[in-house]
Amino acid sequence: MTVVKATPAHTKALLTIGLPFASQKLLETGAFAGIAAMISRTGDSSAAAHQIGLQLLLLGNLPSVALGEAVSLVAGRLAGAGEHQRARAAASFALRVGVGWASGVALLAAVLAPILGPRLVPGDDEIVVVLWACAALLVLECTSLVAQGYLRATGDPRYPSVVVMINATVISPALAALGIFGFGMRALAGWLSFLVEVSASSVLLW
Q: Would you say 49 and 130 are in contact if contact means Cβ atoms under 8 Å apart?
């Protein structure tokens, strides 16, 4: 077994990739928490609707997260071998699979929302609209996750992190605050802000 001694160049390369990604996750989590706190101020039913939508998003997004990581590995190896066309083909395949899965889950969620939503949060129809917004977000989030994985492996790894960080910390909180405190909206304001944020990220990444 060959032992490779770490050098300052190795450390710099790791930090160049790792720090932007870690910062992205930290700021994304902080923005999500901030929006959840704003929504919780509008009432218990809104907080419950938001939490249910968030759980659906996290569960439905698992395959998309896995595909993004797989694309990062496969496309990176292909690009490193000079096979850039095959790297793009791998990303395209992952995108088709991910969007297919996300669309199926989104369709099921959209159909069941009017049936199950009122039972989950009785007396407040906002849960239905939140679940519909979540369904749309599942598909958009898939396109963003696959693009992030591909760009980290084949381009500047800092670019996707910077794009997502700016959108997550500027667009989402600002729009959510405007909707909640400016227009009297509740949980839906947060989910509409997520839709705008992820749409902007997908456009900039692809």
A: yes
> DSSP E strands: which ranges in 107-170?
none
Q: Are the beta carbons of 149 and 88 closer than 8 angstroms?
A: no
Please give the Cα distance from 121 to 50 (Å, whole number). Answer: 11
Sorted by sequence, the CB contacts under 8 Å of residue 186 that are 6+ apart come out as 39, 42, 43, 46, 49, 126, 180
Using one digit for the tens of pLDDT, what is the confidence trace for 47-69? Answer: 999 999 999 999 999 999 999 99
User: In this structure, what token pair is assigned to residue 97?
Assistant: 């699979």
Tokens 């129809």 label which residue? Answer: 125
Convert the pLDDT of each residue in 15-50 to its tens digit: 877 788 888 888 888 998 999 999 999 999 999 999
DSSP string, 3-35: PPPP-HHHHHHHHHHHHHHHHHHHHHHHHHHHH
> SS3 for 5?
coil
pTM: 0.89
| Structure tokens given for 70 | 């797989």
Contact, 93 vs 13, CB < 8 A? no
Angle between helix 126-154 and 84-120 (nearest 10): 160
Q: How far apart are CA 76 and CA 185, in angstroms?
A: 44
Q: Which structure tokens are listed for 156?
A: 């500047």
Contact 130, 187 (CB under 8 A): yes
The angle at the Cα of 179, spanning 62 to 138, to the nearest 5 degrees, equals: 15
